[in-house]
Request: fold
Amino acid sequence: MSYKIIVIEDDPIFTFLLEKGLKATGITGDITLFTNGLTAINFLKEDYNNDNNYVVFLDLNMPVMNGWKFMEHFEVLANPSNCMVFVLTSSGNKLDIDNLMASPLVTDFVIKPINDIVFKKIKNAIQSKFGE
Amino acid sequence: MKRDKIADKERLEALGSYTIMDSEEESLYNDITALAAAICNTPISLISLVDDNRQFFKSHHGLELTSTTLDDSFCKYLILDDLDVLIVENPNQDKRFSEYASVKGDLKIGFYAGVSLTNDDGYQLGSLCVMDQKTKQLNELQINGLKTLAKQVIQLFELRKSKKISRHQKNKLEQKGILLDNIVSATGIGIWERDIKNNLMKLNYECLKILGYSAEAKKTLQYSDWENFIHPEDLKLVKAKLERCFEHKTEIYDIKYRIINLSGQTNWVHDNGKVLSWDDDQPLLMYGTIQNITQKVNDDFELVKLKNNQEAIINNTKDLLWSVDTEYRLIMANNAYHELIRDNIGYQFNVGDVVFSENFDIDINNKWKNYYARALNGEQFSIKGKFHNPAKLRTTYGLTSFNPLYDNNGKLLGLTCYSKDITSEVLSQQVLISAKEEMQKIMDASLDIICTIDEEGYFLSINKACQKIWGYEPKDLIGKQYIGFVHEEDKELTLNEAFAILEGEKVTGFENRYIHKNNTIVPMLWSANWDDKERVVYCIARDITEKKKADVQLAQSERRFKSLVQDGSDLIAILNTEANFLYVSPTSTRILQTTPEEYLGTNAFDYVHPEDYDEVLKQFYKILEVPQTKIRPFRFRIKNNQYIWMETTVTNKLDEPSINGIVVNSRDVSNRVNYLKAIEKQNAKLKEIAWTQSHELRAPVARLMGLVNLIRDENHDLDFEEKNRMLQYIIDSADEIDVVIKKIVDSTVQRMNIEETE
Reply:
């Protein structure tokens, strides 16, 4: 089954590394890049429908609209059945993640940098939800 | 032989020495016989003097004879039988007198009572006697009256003998008066004279005494006044008896009735009288005697009873009565003696038996023989001894008195023994002795001093406790004045107290100080009271050294406590279960700027900050389940609606009688809480800084790690341009790390400084 990959990350180096990693792991799909939550949520408000599947990689610290704000908006329109959100964070600080983990949309946290083992786990998670 | 006594030469010589026989009639003696007749209520009274063949009447009241032969003499029997008093109540039934002319003949003497006229040398000269035609009885008072008169007769004889009578002829009348007064006052007989015509009663002193008057009272009463003294119930009888006299129905007025004297006391009197002169058939003058017989009336009944019971008493008493003659033969014994002997030897001694028995132990026989011999030697003595009665398995104690027994001529007849049963006295004495011993033990065991002190302050007795408390032995103190042992400064106070005790005040709790033998001071606590009967002070004194020490410690601990409560930094309050203030320590003025009085009656929770209210309430009421609890710092309102932070310990003292509340110790912890709050704020900021810093620093590090992984991983087919881009990324990330570290150092220092100056 096909899915759309949405990357919301303001750091271009991370975006580069993420694209390389996804490709190397074999996670395929159209990748759409956003540098803050606002452009991403505006896109999704237009694009989102129940027929598509969405895999979202969300950074937390971003200018204009950060990851937490984005989630507040995304939770309003999205449905957990066709959405997976992987939260990216550079610190292991639990405070960042506890309230977000409560959301049914959030699949997992991923601490940067993402190594190939983590990419494989992400791939397995996507496949088990949306199929091969 | 009997005749010899009458004719005794010495007696007759003694009689002759008075030259009284055949002397002239003298009114002095006639007064005495008249009085004797009045006392005994008889028509006849004689002074009879007996020589060896006749009796001469010196005075013969109511009889015309002046002398008779001895054949017809009653009086001679006084001399013959060596009697003091002879009373013949029924001469016609007495074989000595029944054939007398005076008894059988016209005179018909039916009663005789004579008292011996015995001079100072013991010679019986004759008698003073009274006689009556009818039989009668004399009471003791009447007989004593006769005896007194008989003595007066002898005195008159003595006076006559020494010729004092003739020498004092001029004072005869006066003497007669004195004599009669003496006689009358000696006999206690009241004499009255009633002027019937003028209704006046003339009374002598004795008579007035019966009525309750004093000696100075007037001697004449209206007859109606006299009647007022007579008991109303008896007055009718008195009047009736007098009436019979006045109507010649009886010659003698003789009655017993009651007199109510001036003090309201009722007395029985015996009143005797006779009308002396008449005007034709009208009585003019009456003369009589009156005697207070109350005692006799009361005694009479007892006397009869006594007489009836006399023998019974003698025989019923447990006391032993017996007498033995000079040959140790029993003269007489009462039942108790017989019984004891019988129980000891199986039979009793009969009169005339020797009072020793083979059945007695020889020692016992010898012991009694020894006692009897002493008494027969003229000794009077008493022996305390045991009597064992084997039949009754009983030992009794007796006090036996031994008296020699003499006849009238002083001849030793034997001895009398009287043994009083003193078992109960002996036993109670033994009890007393053991009680005394017990008392002594208690005294000796007492830790307190027990002593008696006399009026002058001398120790009379003291127990051994004084040795321990004062260092002196009882013998060191007894006979010394207690004040000498009292501390100099306490002497005045002690003497004042002692004075109060002697006034009868009972003193307890008096404290003073004594000086121990080793010169240390011993504080004492006294109880004492004065026994007016024994005239001693009973004292108990306690050594209160330990108590004094404890008192000092208590005072110290009170001072300490006060200084802790008043000057401490804690606020101490006592609340009731509703949390109302019952007590607030004075420290509130300093800690809360409010005096304790302002808090009293208000509720503690009124001062608690609303935000802390619930928590404090919850924590406070834990105290009802646990003995002590702590309340975490909370805000407490003070002046001007300001709050301070208080930390409180609550202790349940509801069951402590002296407190009866919840004790609350509070401390102003505002400074500490404010510091804590500042530290917490600082910590939050530090956390934020740390987070930001870690995030900002981690990001470039994570990028570098990702880039390195990408290069190392050969799976990625990287072109040249891509490799250049990655190199540039690495350089940028390294620069970024450098910048970030610099920034962190700068901003941290800066931000911390800001906090410090806040």
Summary: The first helix of chain B runs from residue 2 to 6. The longest strand of chain B covers residues 266-279. Residues 509 and 526 of chain B are 6 Å apart (CA to CA).
